[in-house]
Amino acid sequence: MKYIYFTKTLRELDQTQLVDFTTRNKLDGLDLAVRPGYPIDPENALNELPNFAKRMADAGKGIGLISAPTDLNRANDPKAIAICEAAGKAGVPFVKMGYFPFQVDFHKEMKRAKETLISFANLAQKNHIRILYHTHSGSNLGCNGVGLSWLLEGIDPHFIGVLLDPGHLSLCGGPFPMEYDAIKTKVALLALKDMLPTKQPGKVGQSVKVVPAGLGIVDWNSVGGALRKGQYAGMASIHGEYEAKDLEERERLLAQELDFFRAKLP
């Protein structure tokens, strides 16, 4: 399996430093956040992304995925058009779109979301890329594999795929083998993180934080078993959204996670 790293936590690194980070940590590439405030954003992506992709390629690395702003859920949004065009121009295969938040009427909103995904499929086809929807816990349509299989039914999987996240599924899904089997023909990429829910005294519900793999509630043996049975052969994005006091500590934790995932996953 090839491992890429989500740059959400690397906002302070410039393009040169991102290449160095990827090389130094023996990663295959990056899951590049193309968001406001990052070195490459929706406004400059058309010019900057192809240049950065070449710098990565020159170092023997790749950009496996672009993670767009989480509110990017309209195919006619100028930011969506620019990011997808930039991805196609730069040879980036996948773009993660934003989410469809549940509001008041599940069935009407699912129908509207499906219509929007068809528009995104057209945008993906035009730019020779695949747009991915992330199984993200919380009040989002398609937050788990079973629900997302319903949302994506009838939509061409060549252009709309799934970014499957065992961490979020541990909060809002069924057993991972069932969730994976429900959507496996559409899974394009994995998002890897572990979750630790805790009960806060005096507060309703629970709080959840991302922790290094193996310290949370994800059953990684079950995840690895299901992926092997399904012969998963795609990439995995290490999200690294836990706290780290500095870049040195982040890289130390990343090295531990890489060893962990290589032992547990295909």
Topology:
Elements: E1 2-6, H1 15-24, E2 29-33, H2 45-58, E3 62-67, H3 78-90, E4 94-96, H4 106-127, E5 130-134, H5 145-151, E6 160-164, H6 166-172, H7 176-183, E7 187-192, E8 194-198, E9 207-211, H8 220-229, E10 235-238, H9 247-264
Parallel strand pairs: 1-2, 1-10, 2-3, 3-4, 4-5, 5-6, 6-7, 7-10
Antiparallel strand pairs: 8-9
Helix pairs in contact: 2-3, 3-4, 5-7, 7-8
Radius of gyration: 18 Å
Number of domains: 1
Helical residue percent band:
40-55%
Helix-and-strand structural type: alpha/beta
Shape: globular
Strands in their spatial order, largest beta sheet? 1-2-3-4-5-6-7-10
Tell me the number of strands.
Answer: 10
What name is given to the CATH topology?
A: TIM Barrel
CATH class: Alpha Beta
Counting DSSP H or I runs of 4 or more residues, the number of helices is 9
What is the CATH architecture descriptor? Alpha-Beta Barrel
Topology order in helix (H) and strand (E) letters: EHEHEHEHEHEHHEEEHEH
Mean pLDDT, rounded to whole units?
97
Report strand %: 15-25%
- Unreliable spans are none
In CATH terms, the superfamily is: Divalent-metal-dependent TIM barrel enzymes
Largest sheet: 8 strands, parallel, barrel
